[in-house]
Amino acid sequence: MDLKVLNATIKKEFQIRLHAYPISFMVGCILTSFYTTFGAWLMYHYFFRKRLAVDFTELAGTSDYMSYAIVGSLMYLFVVRTCLNVSRTLITELREGTLESLMLAPFKRTSYFLGNMLLQTFMTFGETAIATLIGVFFGLRIHDFSLLKFVVATLLSLYGFFGLSLMLGCLMLYARDTYISQNTLFTAMFLVCGVTFPKEYLPSWLQLIGSIIPVTDALTLMRGALLGGLSTESFMLVSLRVFILGTIYIVMGFPLMKHVERIALEKMEG
Fold first, then answer.
1. Which part of the chain is the ABC transmembrane type-2 domain (predicted)?
2. Interatomic CA distance for residues 93 and 83, integer angstroms
């Protein structure tokens, strides 16, 4: 890893976030989490009238639906912000006309993408903290907090999100599109990864799709760390799954990114 490239990437992206993106962009992301939480609150109180399915507690690991849904919405905010901003870095370079110059520079992909990920993670923590305060107002309660599990869940989640962002970045750069690809993926994740309800309620083929996306198990880990309901053995097993999935995405993502970069440059010349 090249620390010079890492530091330069962080400084560059920070300046872009500071000067190019207004505060309203951050507010919009926080509102996304608010709408998800508010929608879950309306359904729980007025549509379901605070009644849950008999097997909900067994599947979710808690009987507190609002805490379950709010933790899911907070994690969804986190994955959208990290994956979105890391994955669209190269297509942004392409649109700004600097991709060719970047390829000619001493460009270390690991340091470049990791720098973007670190900065975005730091900024998203601030947004998530604000969204958490909103969640407390709607009924978020921490039932069985474990600091060790929380740290492990956070690190493994970021690892899985990083791998996922590489694959999404390849798709964006190849298609030269951000809107359709990103919104399709995030909508699918919201459905199959168990953001506001246990994924076991879905058909088996949708559960299978959700099982190969690291977000699903990352949600399980974070809920286990904050709400309990997950034994130590189960926590370790799910942690291993997230690590394996993240590794697969990363191992596939970097070589595929190089290939897509060549295609993008050829299209520029063509």
1. 28-260
2. 17
Quote the tokens at residue 32: 């996304």
Q: How buried is residue 55: exposed, middle or buried, by Cβ count under 10 Å (0-12/13-18/19+)?
A: exposed
Torsions phi, psi for 88 (to 5 deg): -95, 10
Neighbouring residues of 131: CB distance < 8 A, sequence distance ≥ 6: 30, 33, 34, 37, 73, 74, 77
Rounded (10°) CA dihedral 98, 11, 154, 257: 20
* Residues 213-239: tens digit of each pLDDT: 999 999 999 999 998 888 889 999 999
Q: What is the pLDDT of residues 43-91, one digit of tens each?
A: 888 888 888 888 888 888 888 898 999 999 889 888 888 887 788 888 8
H helix runs in 88-108, sequence order = 89-96, 99-104
- Residues 48 and 253: their CA atoms lie apart, in Å, by 42
Q: Tokens 């849950």, residue?
A: 52
